[in-house]
Design a protein that fits this description.
By secondary structure, this protein is mainly alpha-helical. Helix content is 68%, strand content 0%. The model has no long low-confidence stretch (mean pLDDT 92).
């Protein structure tokens, strides 16, 4: 981003114009999104979590049949 100072323009208005241009361009939002981006889980990790969910579901149905839930 580049903003050229106009004649008789004070620093605060120049900074306001600069921040407005940065906000309009969306550069800052892209940088913030990529900064905290999480890595996608691997295939093995996804498979393990799916198996855990299935086991928990089976356990819950078993407890429901016995009337403990």
């Amino acid at each position: 981003m580049e903003v050229v100072k106009k004649p008789r323009e004070n620093v605060s208005s120049l900074m306001r114009r600069f921040t407005q241009k940065v906000r309009e361009s969306g550069i800052l939002m892209k940088a913030k999104k990529s900064q905290f981006r999480e890595k996608a889980p691997s295939r093995i990790t996804r498979r393990k979590s799916a198996l855990e969910r299935v086991a928990i579901r089976k356990e819950k149905t078993k407890l429901k049949k016995f009337g403990k839930i």
